[in-house]
Design a protein that fits this description.
four-stranded parallel sheet, 18% strand, 250 residues, alpha/beta, 9 strands, 7 helices
Length: 250
């Protein structure tokens, strides 16, 4: 039986969409046990479907590490404590990204020999059904060359395990494809990665979504800028299409 702890509080839309997501997920995943952590009054519709743990407080979006660790009645703190206590298989939260990263690192620790945690996200590409994995997209503001090398390995494993890619192609996010391009940290990371069989060199941001790469490695600062730029472009294009279609019936 797979055990997943879910923090139901902290999202922009409150607990309602998370509750519905849990219900839908359980319909198609009978071999999963979910523990829903949050305000029990809001979780009454989940009674009989999964275990409910009462934790009424919400971690503010701007909370720092100390504030999160002191919020012992928050759903995020209680969910993380349950994860550690029960050795669950996964912990899910839609709350404060910084708070969740802080408490996870402090309470659960990183995997052995992993220097820094990274936020990972699959992005769609122009090839139907293919995703490109990008990391780090914001867990850190600064990274060392050695940490980027670890991100490359983490991304390669993620691509293999989650998407079934047999031989993932890993690239460094850079301002040019040549070996000498990139930030000082990126240039050093390139030298450390160049002998790895999965490493294919640098890639400019404009080519990330063309489907060539399976994994893109970036420091957290650059990766977060790429993420938000991609979101902004997608939103702008969507609005432009809507305005075009509303101009006339045809």
């Amino acid at each position: 039986m797979i055990n997943i702890i879910v923090d139901t509080l902290g999202s922009d839309a409150g607990s309602a969409p998370i509750i519905e997501a849990i219900k839908t997920f359980l319909l198609n995943n009978k071999d999963v046990n979910i523990v829903a952590v949050g305000n029990k009054d809001e979780l009454s519709s989940l009674e009989g479907l999964c275990e409910i743990v009462h934790a009424p407080d919400v971690v503010p979006m701007e909370a720092g590490p100390l504030q999160v660790m002191r919020a012992k009645n928050s759903s995020m703190y209680v969910a993380t404590a349950l994860m550690k206590e029960r050795h669950a298989d996964a912990l899910v939260s839609a709350g404060s990204t910084g708070g969740f990263l802080s408490i996870s690192t402090l309470m659960l620790k990183t995997a052995p020999n992993v220097k820094r945690a990274a936020l990972v996200s699959p992005f769609p590409t122009k090839i139907k059904g293919k995703k490109v994995v990008v990391l780090d997209i914001g867990a850190n503001t600064e990274n060392s060359p050695e940490e980027l090398v670890q991100f490359a390995l983490m991304g390669e494993l993620y691509s293999k395990i989650v998407f079934g890619v047999k031989q993932p192609k890993v690239y460094l996010l850079s301002n040019g494809t040549e070996e000498g391009k990139g930030s000082p940290v990126g240039k050093q990371a390139y030298k450390l990665l160049q002998d790895k069989p999965y490493f294919k060199g640098n890639m400019e941001a404009r080519y990330v979504l063309n489907g060539e790469a399976d994994v893109i490695v970036a420091d957290g600062y650059s990766g977060n800028i790429f993420l938000k730029c991609a979101e902004g472009v997608a939103k702008t294009m969507g609005n432009m299409f809507k305005e075009t279609f509303k101009k006339n019936l045809w």
